[in-house]
Specification:
Layout: H1 4-7, E1 22-24, H2 40-53, E2 55-60, E3 63-64, H3 73-89, E4 97-100, E5 103-105, H4 110-116, E6 125-129, H5 139-148, E7 152-156, H6 166-175, E8 178-182, H7 192-203, E9 209-211, H8 217-220, H9 231-245
Length: about 250
């Protein structure tokens, strides 16, 4: 057991000021489109809370995958435009600035979505994910195809993939794939194994970006105030949040 972990002063995401004027590149707050926030009032509540916590800019990144077959770049863009219009009509301005992205499952349907044009960060960065348990068939080739088509894949929450080890992460980095930390895992909310893997990847400078992956405000509200972050982790996270800003 690492006793230093318990006696070293720790800070939270809020007390450390990490979220001050921050950019979050991963969230499921666009209401009613996936397994995230389901309705408009809940979305407004979450956005206002995030603004109050310090978040300045936020990408809404609904899932695009076979489980949500109606989600395409066109349908989500229309839904996003309607959402923004309603916020404006209701005079809601005390929220972060919003842009639309997406989180793409690496599966066969991705080829079709690519033909229609992918929703990206800063023109070419695209958030992608896989099953937590097994990699997709042709995993490396799918990523290589994205790279060849001038996309820059950003792999969401790599710390949660049970089938990956350090050799896999290094291979992905050598391929040119960016890695995105779900920063709340550092509090242990997803368990010790995932927290320790994320801590190791962060220590080894394997991550490029970070995001909340917020699905429900109720799950995140208290987590942002948990005093779990070491000084070294805060310094590493500051760099990731600066990288996030480059995607806006």
């Amino acid at each position: 057991m690492n006793f230093l972990r318990f006696f070293t002063p720790r800070q939270s995401f809020i007390s450390s000021a990490l979220l001050h004027d921050s950019t979050d590149i991963h969230s499921h707050i666009l209401p009613g489109v996936d397994d995230g926030i389901s309705n408009y009032p809940e979305a407004v509540e979450a956005l206002r809370w995030l603004k109050n916590a310090g978040v300045g800019r936020l990408y809404l990144t609904p899932h695009i995958m076979s489980d949500f077959s109606k989600n395409t770049s066109a349908t989500l863009s229309a839904h996003f435009d309607s959402f923004i219009q309603k916020l404006e009509n209701d005079g809601i301005t005390d929220i972060p600035a919003l842009q639309l992205g997406a989180e793409y499952m690496l599966e066969a349907a991705l080829a079709t979505h690519k033909k229609d044009g992918l929703l990206t960060f800063a023109g070419r960065h695209v958030l992608v994910e896989t099953s937590y348990i097994t990699p997709p068939l042709g995993f490396s080739e799918i990523l290589e195809n994205l790279l060849e088509n001038n996309y820059s894949p950003v792999l969401a929450h790599p710390e949660r993939y049970q089938y990956m080890d350090m050799n896999d992460y290094e291979r992905l980095k050598n391929q040119g794939i960016k890695l995105q930390l779900n920063f709340i895992v550092l509090t242990g909310i997803y368990g010790t194994v995932i927290r320790e893997k994320a801590e190791h990847l962060l220590q080894e400078d394997m991550y490029d970006f970070t995001g909340s992956d917020m699905h429900r405000l109720s799950r995140h509200r208290d987590v942002y105030s948990l005093q779990k972050l070491s000084e070294k982790q805060i310094l590493k996270l500051q760099k990731l949040f600066r990288n996030n800003r480059s995607l806006w």
